[in-house]
Amino acid sequence: MTSPSRATRVLALLLVPFVLAQPVLARQNDGQNRAEAPKVPQKALPPSTVPVPKALQTAGTVPWLYEGSDVPVDGQWLFGKMKNGLRYAVRRNGVPPRQVSIRVRIDAGSMYENDSEQGYAHLLEHLLFRESKYLGKGEAISAWQRLGATFGSDANAETSPTHTAYKLDIPNIDQAKLEESFKLLSGMIREPVLSDENVAAERPIVLAEKRERGGAGLRMADLTRQTFFAGQRLSVRNPIGTDATLGAARGKGVKAFYDRWYRPENTVIVVAGDADPVVLAGLVEQWFGDWKPTGKAGTAPAFGDPVAPAGAQAPDDGIAPIGELAVGVEPDLPRSLTYAIMRPWRQVQDTIAYNEGLLTDAVAQAIINRRLESRARAGGSYLYAQVQQDDVSRSADATFVTFAPLTGDWQAALGDVRSVIADALATPPTQEEIDREYAQFDVSFANQVEQESVQAGSALADNIVNAVDIREAVAAPQVVLDVFRGMKPRLTPDAVLARTRALFEGTVTRGVYVTPTAGEADVAALRTALASEAAADGSARLAAQTIAFADLPAVGAPGTIAKQGKLGVLDINQVEFGNGVKALLWANDAEPGRVTVRVRFGAGWRAFDESNAVYASLGETALVGSGLGDLGQNELDRLSTGRKLGFDFGIDDAVFTFTAQTRSEDVNDQLYLFAAKLGMPRWDKDPVIRAKAAAELAYNTYSTSPGGVLGRDLEYLSTGEKRFAKPDPAALKAATPEEFRAVWEPLLAQGPVEVLVFGEFDAAKVTEQLRLTFGALPPRAPIAADVAARVPGFAQGTGAPLVATHRGDANQAAAVVAWPSGGGVANLRESRQLEILTQLFNNRLLDALRERAGAAYSPQAFSNWPADLASGGRITALAQLEPSFVPVFFAEADKIARDLAATPPTADELARVTEPLGQLIRRASTGNQFWLYNLEGATQDPQRVAKLRTILTDYSETTPEAMQALAARYLINATPFRLAVIPEGQTLATGSATTPEKSDTSGR
Questions:
Q1: Are residues 359 and 482 in the same domain?
Q2: Is 353 found in the same domain as 248?
Q3: Highest taxon of the source (predicted)?
Q4: CB-based contacts of 498: which residues, under 8 Å, 6+ apart?
Q5: Count of CB atoms within 10 A of residue 44's CB?
Q6: Is 0.85 surpassed by the pTM of this model?
Q7: Does residue 535 sit in the same domain as residue 647?
Q8: pLDDT tens digits, residue range 211-251?
């Protein structure tokens, strides 16, 4: 039983030329809107040629997805099964409006490959986008862009060990676009062109993707997979394939794999979107009903079972016999140890009783994990630990135990983790512990019911695909909630104990220890440690303490409302309190039961310089955990029982932010937590010490790949400012909890405060709660003038690239080029127009380096224009590639910049950017998050309200000449910053300024 995920709520958006008007709040209900936007004249479309579907399963038939299950059928879906064996599911969904999400799942992944075919399933995924019946060579990306889809997000695919899935989200759908989408997709799935030429063209791209995934992380992932699934097909099948098999791939061999598996009986098509589901079913049947497979069908291979080696002995505590173990040494990776109790995977009857067992398992795991976390917070021998049951690729039903030792004494950490688990196996949990976890699950499931009407069609379609993959059904949110609540009387300590013990019973125990230090451990030592008896330790059990918001102290003396009125857009209220705190409140029922709260305060990154920057990094992870008032982390957890509360903290360019997704019932409590953090912060030391340890353990991992080095150093190197450098181990060791408080305490009390509350809530009650909380804060200290004026610099280039090194694979490198742009709200239209220019650059870079050269898998260009700062923006292009291709990247980037400045783009090229951008805006604007993001800061800068009205046209309407002028201004006039990241011990290659042609057969 797969439970649907939560999604955003729908706002029907009224768009008129040059103005983004107020949206009409709407709620989808059986495909009808409660309030409808005015009719917009549209061009008459030709009569539909979609046939009436003949394969829909009637009300008296058990839908194919629910065969053998007593889970109530989700009546929103229509199911069909055609004579050729293809199955489908369709439903109407208007989230976001006028979008249709199509998923095509092929029941074949990497585990269906023969030894000589490793990587073919994934290679086929690429080739279907290369050329097909209705799409010429390399036309797929541009074709989907013309339909408004963004390549990589709206048009994408995935290959797993068990399936290949194609995913298309088509915005602004109409009859013509819907029919064209099915036509193009049918050509891709049914009649791809699998020639030697196309294989040779796509091979370098796949190898580039493989190269980007390489390095220490991949080596340890491979070691883990090979150890845990020893003797099974999964251990020797990685979806990306091998250099040898990919290099040997030819059209004939790939076609043979296609013929065996790309067949209607192996295909499921799922469609959810803003269209008549009967029409959707008709389109599936029209374009796939006459599909006849070619060649002989493949026989699904046996995936194998986990089996204990002959003579394996069970450890003293009675868990499964210990089998394969491994120790991996990677100098730049932190310590981690995972062991798993493995059981054979078997297809189940997806019944209510079966799902009640899974839900009991979830409660049992949550209790153990809370105890493990409590012990880690108290300064244990490990940084984190977690227990998780998982069914892996239809190969094993396993319970994984994962933790990170803080030091080389991994035996002590293993003993501590196992002692917590041993206690859970020996003694039932208390009813209070069960009730606590029950309350957390209940609020989550109830929240899904509240927001069922706003589940995105893309998520609903993905749920069906995932259910098919694991051979289970899907359940509506109300069914999940009813099942869970119905089993509450049976969630007793003895019942949870029984399920806990079952989670740690199995066929074989396997484990992998990863360490940076050679000689620290070996397989024999690991086996001895796992075989020793674990002494049960109940000290991590949580004491029975109930904490209520009503018992907490006031933030301060209630404040006064100094000013109140309308913001002038979207019926948003603006409230200003006597202490200077300002709030924007938009009460609407667009997202049932959901409220977003964001608090903006202080100076953000401006507050830091080289001397205190280490505390910025530590603050991102430890500030919230250090508590508030008399409440530490454990007390805050107890306080949140049965509530949906959040506490995300972020450091932006010029402000700090607290953000939470909460419920209508909990919004007042959420406001108290945020205000109390500002008004009466607590300064526990343990979260700071733990954050230091985590940062020290993770630091060397950045050096394992060029992408890691970019993540660590790009901001620092491109600005030339050490405040943006990732703190190194020396800086972290020198940091103290006392100094952490000395830095952060004044920052929490400094600068203006803006509170935004968007969602379904009682405006009067929230306004009063704001008066009692944020209105009660003491007056804020001003931000010093020199701090307020601080903006990021730009490391002006000299022509030659700066060179950094990594300690990853010798065939990995990265290259970056960046140009300074601008910042601020005053020129926000220019910022938005620069996004169009950046996407033009991105498309050309993708074509040059991926499609023509096969040099990079995912080159990209992006623009950053800080709205809260006067300057500091950049346009950046980067790619990961082989070291020898670094000069090619710089040459291509320079050429694209020159060409954009010299010659206007064509109308078609421009449309392939503006149409997807316009559709992204339309879709994003159907949720509260979009409006909150674009209006935050409006209490301090009213220009943001006016700029909101032109956001659609700014992003989607321009001219070729305007793009040429922007390119000349930003891409030509300044010397760009260049960075090359190459392997240690190598020198930066010099090469031709032209892109080399790809090899006919072997690729690169």
A1: yes
A2: no
A3: Bacteria
A4: none
A5: 6
A6: yes
A7: no
A8: 999 999 999 999 999 999 999 999 999 999 999 999 999 99
